[in-house]
Please model this.
Amino acid sequence: MTWCGRRGAVSGSFFVGGLCLILSTFVEEATLALLVYYLGFGALSLGFGVLYVWAAELFPTTIRVRCMSVQSLAARFGAIASPFINDLGTTHPALSLMIFAAPCVIAGVLDLWLPETRDVVLPNTLDDIADDATPNGRGKNGATLTEPLVGKLEGA
Model:
């Protein structure tokens, strides 16, 4: 992940995973369809592994626990809905995969607008985020959340 960062890993894996799920519905040969399906499943597993680290780093320390609990609640709703969506596959085999794949592709694209958190100073308060959004992007201490952390610690 040193070459793509957390944003690249999550965004790329969601996009590739969603496309593989969609592609698996169009492949006629069973072995190739399973190969594409499991390639997508593996990409999505990578994305979810990195997502928990990245999601925790996106929010300031003061609200991080609340934000992670809201994300966990949303994940539980998805887990509750997934058996019903999977059940649609008995009547329309491609429909359930399309319903699972579409949010993955959309999330993969939308994640590109979120900030990269690798090697940057993480926000502690909401004011840190507001200070970073100022025209010069400098916080109270002259630092910015988007500058690399490397070198900042050496001078401190």
Observations:
- The chain is about 65% helix and 0% strand.
- Helices lie at 5-26, 30-58, 64-87, 93-110, 126-132, 152-155.
- The CA atoms of residues 7 and 113 lie 9 Å apart.
- The chain has a mean pLDDT of 83.
